[in-house]
C-alpha cells in the first residue's frame, strides 16, 4: 500500500512501494547546462522528500552500447530495489 504525503512527512524511513502495477509519468522537462547540471523542480523535490545533501543514484538502461533510459532514486531506497530485482533471479538459479 502506498504511503500518503503525511506519512512521508512524518518519517525519514519512507520506502518506495513502486512495482509492476505502478504508473510512470513525465514530471517535468529538465535542461542540462554546459556543466552537466540540472535542477529538479521544487514541487518534485517536495513530493519525493528530497532535501539538500541527499544522495541520488543514477540508474541506466543500455541498448546496443548506448544508454537509452535512466532514472534517479534516493540511495536509501536502492538496497530495497536491488533486493527485489535480485531475489527472483536467485530463486530461479537454484542458489
Description:
The protein is α+β, with helices and mostly antiparallel strands. It has a single domain, classed as Pemi-like Protein 1, Chain: D (Ribbon), CATH 2.10.260. The chain is 32% helix and 18% strand. It contains three helices and two strands, in the order ααββα. The protein has helices spanning 5-10, 42-47, 75-92, and strands spanning 56-63, 66-74. The protein has a two-stranded antiparallel sheet. Residues 30-77 form the SpoVT-AbrB domain. Pfam families: MazE_antitoxin. This is AbrB family transcriptional regulator.
Write the layout of secondary structure elements.
Blueprint: H1 5-10, H2 42-47, E1 56-63, E2 66-74, H3 75-92
Antiparallel strand pairs: 1-2
InterPro entries: SpoVT-AbrB_dom (IPR007159), SpoVT-AbrB_sf (IPR037914)
Domain SpoVT-AbrB: 30-77
Protein name: AbrB family transcriptional regulator
